[in-house]
């Protein structure tokens, strides 16, 4: 039998990355400040983790203008959704095994 | 084991907090119900016998404003206490998903009044309000959907039995709000 640990993604070991992915899984898109406020992290910290997720192809970044203010919004890609769901399934399988 | 549990709990909590505003106040429901009962009593005793349409519309709008103001202020206070944010995406979605159907319902009800369909007023208010709640329940505590279903059902009944429409209006806007308000207060506001 395949061990559930194989489904775990090392990209999601980090709390900020996992948190951002959780929110993007249930919201079509979210702005930088919205993510920052709920994760309670600094600008630099969040932006480096989001950059990592973008490079892995898990999220899509788009820059728009809200009036005159530039705004960056993030959305989950289908590759990101697949990875996130397999990570969740692995976590749940681990829990069941340990109980 | 602990960290997996913590992970799952953090995931669930972030999903919840990024999509729903849950600091709604139960006491504001009780107060809104009390305003509505006072209004229904005034309508029954003074406005309806006198046929005072203008005074009735004015009172209805006054009650609505008071109820919305109370709900806004008390929920704001609740949110401050729980550390839940006010200027957030769920709050904006909640307000627009509640506000748009309510606005449509308000205009619809005023048009009915203008065209003389007095017997349909209660039902139209209840039904639009109930549907607005069902619509908004995606962005707030899930039990709001039940309140919406009940209000909508009372609205349909009020249209079916116009003779009892004021009673059904008091049941919906008055007693249901009071009942639900206490339920929320005891159950969800420790």
UniProtKB/TrEMBL annotation, chain A:
This is Transcriptional regulator. InterPro entries: WH-like_DNA-bd_sf, WH_DNA-bd_dom, WH_DNA-bd_sf. Gene3D superfamilies: Winged helix-like DNA-binding domain superfamily/Winged helix DNA-binding domain (1.10.10.10). It comes from the Bacteria. It comes from Phaeodactylibacter luteus. The lineage of its organism: Bacteria, Pseudomonadati, Bacteroidota, Saprospiria, Saprospirales. Residues 16-95 form the Winged helix DNA-binding domain.
TrEMBL record, chain B:
Keywords: Membrane, Transmembrane, Transmembrane helix. The chain crosses the membrane at residues 21-43, 55-79, 91-111, 117-136. This is Uncharacterized protein.
